[in-house]
User: Which sequence fits this backbone?
């Protein structure tokens, strides 16, 4: 039987997946994030790099900005960030800087993951803050969002195989 914490993590990861689907609808890479404090979502974000032409518009960054505005504070103490893909170095840095206490991610990122895959910036003792990391929540579903998106993108970019 699952613990209450595991059930809560699944519930909020589903919310992050809903954010990822919003990105997919606008042809962004489907990555989503939510920030939860005291059982309430205080920040939401999905990937907006293409839309905004801004390389910092990752789901986590968008959610951190929204949560900070909600709290009127840059310190996101007692908050948990749920994100469908393991945070990259930039996002991991923002997590440390915003003092988020706990990070839950869905699927690992073998190319840029900095919450345990390539390195773990969130548990680096030389920084002035460390975050608890929980990995693999709804991993298959989160990975599937990305796999299907990139599969469809490749199919659209392939030339027709018809005869002339």
Assistant:
């Amino acid at each position: 039987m699952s613990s209450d914490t595991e059930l809560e993590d699944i519930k909020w990861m589903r919310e992050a997946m809903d954010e990822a689907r919003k990105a997919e609808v606008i042809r962004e890479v489907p990555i989503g994030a939510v920030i939860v404090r005291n059982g309430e979502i205080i920040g939401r974000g999905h990937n907006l790099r293409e839309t905004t032409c801004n390389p910092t518009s990752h789901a986590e960054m968008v959610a951190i900005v929204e949560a900070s505005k909600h709290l009127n504070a840059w310190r996101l103490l007692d908050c948990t960030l749920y994100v469908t893909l393991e945070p990259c170095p930039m996002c991991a840095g923002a997590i440390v800087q915003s003092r988020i206490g706990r990070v839950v991610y869905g699927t690992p990122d073998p190319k840029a993951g900095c919450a345990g895959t390539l390195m773990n910036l969130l548990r680096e003792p030389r920084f002035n803050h460390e975050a608890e990391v929980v990995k693999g929540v709804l991993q298959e579903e989160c990975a599937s969002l990305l796999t299907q998106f990139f599969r469809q993108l490749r199919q659209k970019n392939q030339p027709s195989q018809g005869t002339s």
In short: The CA atoms of residues 107 and 144 lie 9 Å apart. The radius of gyration is 16 Å.
